[in-house]
Specification:
24% strand, Protocatechuate 4,5-dioxygenase, Chain B, alpha/beta, binds fe (ii) ion, 10 helices
Length: 376
């Protein structure tokens, strides 16, 4: 009995085809009466083969149109909470960064190392990133220039981060995201300035996730709505932006990885040790900030979205949490508030802030151990 998958494969003993020509079979088939349309690589050879295999006259086999495998529905493979302290790139000493260090913050960097290995396995078409440090006042912006390069400097830590960046942008996906976001009623723009200086938040997270820069990216700005409107309005915008992003990924057939470039608790020390990588001086800002971070991480791990939503305003207020900018909410929405257990790769302080590196693996994610608290 031949293996038969309508329109894709035909014949256990014969060739198995995935692309080529559509052949309509109007004669009787020896193997199966089910296969009336098959796909073969070459029209004339296919007719001969099918005629012989099925003991029918070639004239009963009609070649129709050239068949091309339709683009698969795109999907999000995984999402990463990917904080962006420039200290991590500084500690890595990559050739792109001018300041040099003696290392430091190893636990966080090892967490990122595990993410890199995972991304190498996933082989995504694109990494999308939402960064709090690309702040836009009028609407949500998408990088819209195919190649961007230049020098990016952290305005607060210029002695740690002066990075020569070079990136390939998935402009077609930017177009699709903008279109879907507009359909959600959001104000959007494409960033088309070829000399645009990409912010350090975008660059740090992308470098730590993929230092080879061999995967196209799509940067998304943080519309400043959290600072101008109410918390609910601002996070609602991010939920819509996440939904639009997911639809655009599906429509364009992309296999995508998402990165939310957010630190959790964000109160930090005002004085820096000398050298900055003196790890004997590094610790979380306060025990309260640590407790808040642990609670939020647990909610994220277990997908307790109702509780997460309830706690978010207080978490932001008490710890100046950087998730206020919406990157995390954008990603969770794009992931459709996943009902899988998130993996905590690392947690650690940087000048007192709380940084969690987390992963939602939508391909291999295991069900949550506890009941999710429902969706936002
Ligand atoms: Fe930041």
């Amino acid at each position: 009995m031949p293996s038969h998958r309508h329109g894709l494969r035909f014949g256990l003993t014969g060739p198995v085809f995935t692309t080529g020509h559509v052949v309509s079979i109007i004669g009787p088939l020896r193997f199966s009466s089910l296969a009336q349309i098959v796909v073969v690589p070459d029209g004339s050879k296919a007719r001969a083969w099918l005629a012989e295999e099925n003991s029918v006259d070639r004239s009963s086999l009609l070649t129709t149109t050239k068949w091309e495998k339709p683009p698969g529905r795109g999907e999000i493979l995984a999402g990463f909470l990917a904080p962006h302290p420039p200290h991590l790139v500084y500690a890595e000493n990559p050739p792109q960064n001018r300041p040099k260090s003696q290392g430091g913050w190893d636990t966080l960097r090892q967490g990122y190392q595990r993410c890199r290995e995972k991304i190498k396995v996933l082989k995504p078409d694109v990494i999308l990133i939402h960064s709090p440090h690309w702040q836009t006042v009028v609407g949500h912006h998408f990088l819209g220039v195919p190649k961007l390069s230049g020098l990016s400097v952290d305005p607060i830590f210029p002695h740690l981060f002066q990075y020569q960046f070079e990136m390939t942008v998935d402009v077609a996906l930017a177009d699709a995201c903008a279109e879907e976001a507009m359909a959600e009623g959001l104000l959007v723009q494409k960033m088309t300035n070829p000399n645009f200086r990409v912010d350090y938040g975008t660059i740090v997270s992308l470098h730590m996730l993929n230092p080879d820069w061999d995967i196209p990216v799509l940067g998304i700005s943080a519309h400043n709505s959290p600072y101008y409107f109410s918390h609910d309005d601002a996070q609602d915008q991010m939920i819509k932006l996440g939904q639009a992003t997911r639809k655009a990924i599906e429509k364009t057939g992309r296999r995508a990885v998402l990165a939310a470039s957010n630190t959790l608790s964000h109160l930090h020390f005002e004085r820096e040790p000398d050298p900055p990588e003196d790890m004997s001086q590094e610790h979380i800002y306060s025990p309260q900030q640590y407790q808040w971070d642990m609670m939020i991480i647990r909610l994220l791990q277990q997908g307790r979205w109702d509780e997460f939503q309830r706690m978010l305003p207080e978490f932001i207020e008490k710890t100046a949490a950087e998730v206020k900018a919406g990157s995390l909410m954008w990603m969770l929405s794009a992931l459709d508030f996943p009902t899988i257990e998130a993996h905590l790769h690392a947690y650690g302080p940087v000048i007192g802030t709380g940084n969690a590196i987390m992963e939602w693996d939508l391909q291999a994610g295991c069900p949550q151990k506890t009941e999710p608290g429902g969706r936002l």
